[in-house]
Amino acid sequence: MIVRREDGAGGKYMSEFLKKYVFPKISSKAGEIALEDMEDSADFSENFVLTTDSYTVKPPLFRGGSIGSLAVCGTANDLAVVGAKPSYMSLSLIVQEGFEIEKLERIMEDISKAKDEVGVKVITGDTKVVEANIEIFINTTGVGERSEELEENLEAVRSYREYPFRWIRDKGAKEGEAVIVSGNVAEHGLTILLERESLNFEIDVSSDVYPVWKFVRKALKVGGITSMKDPTRGGLANALNEIAEKSGVGILVEEEKIPIREDVKFVCETLGIDPLSMANEGKVVMTVVKDLADEVLQVLKKFDENAEIIGYTTKEFSEVVMKTRIGTMKVVPPPVMDPVPRVC
């Protein structure tokens, strides 16, 4: 047997690979969140969380960003969705021999701008130059601090119901909560696909890479957020299924409520790709106590007018189900893998 590309491409296959070959050898935890929980970050003390990620996007420069801005924002976003303020980061570069210095300078400029926008300090790192045909890989590790905004959010949630967690957890949702998406989906994955394959579609689309802490912290101050994920590999479909499975609830969403540009949807469908499975790099999906959902939504709309309540959690079924535009119901399964490899 050999390792397959799909074993590292997000979705069902990667989950099975990790559970079979990785977690049995190294499974452990230092705080509330265990490695095998497969959440975006894990805590190692009462006040700090840790996350790490490796970025292999191809091409490394793309409309709306680069592997540099993607690495900083992606790592910061994994901290933000558990309610932590992104604070410190490591940065390791693995660069192919012969890689153009002009491209490297653009990537480093994007790293510098992104870290300043996030408000994170890069305090350690490493650089390797290799002969392998990789262009450039970046590994980042981020440390996030417990925030006042998180405490305010937890207090608000607990005024409505029991919430036994110290961080925002994938398994935190309960029946009857609103499901909110912070903006249009599928744009990062489609941008990478179109640039990589030089596909001739007349569409003006760019990556949505963005540090979500800028709006997450405002939403946390309103309170009521019970689970939260950034829908990267596997897209919105994968994020919704993870929340549903871990929380033990079903999720009912309305197709007409899901924010997606019509031209983006058209191109995805023309290429035979489900836009709900396409990666995003500056969006969040969250569940929110019903009574606070509209107020949270209004905060999100100040940053992105396309933010929307797309559905609710339920105990009527255990899957993610979508009510289509024509009124029929269909199950939205977790993707077996990301439809576009090397997008992040």
UniProtKB/TrEMBL annotation:
<protein>
    <submittedName>
        <fullName>Hydrogenase expression/formation protein HypE</fullName>
    </submittedName>
</protein>
<dbReference type="InterPro" id="IPR016188">
    <property type="entry name" value="PurM-like_N"/>
</dbReference>
<feature type="domain" description="PurM-like N-terminal">
    <location>
        <begin position="46"/>
        <end position="145"/>
    </location>
</feature>
<dbReference type="GO" id="GO:0051604">
    <property type="term" value="P:protein maturation"/>
</dbReference>
<dbReference type="InterPro" id="IPR036921">
    <property type="entry name" value="PurM-like_N_sf"/>
</dbReference>
<dbReference type="InterPro" id="IPR036676">
    <property type="entry name" value="PurM-like_C_sf"/>
</dbReference>
<dbReference type="Pfam" id="PF00586">
    <property type="entry name" value="AIRS"/>
</dbReference>
<comment type="similarity">
    <text>Belongs to the HypE family.</text>
</comment>
<dbReference type="InterPro" id="IPR010918">
    <property type="entry name" value="PurM-like_C_dom"/>
</dbReference>
<feature type="domain" description="PurM-like C-terminal">
    <location>
        <begin position="174"/>
        <end position="321"/>
    </location>
</feature>
<dbReference type="InterPro" id="IPR011854">
    <property type="entry name" value="HypE"/>
</dbReference>
<dbReference type="Pfam" id="PF02769">
    <property type="entry name" value="AIRS_C"/>
</dbReference>
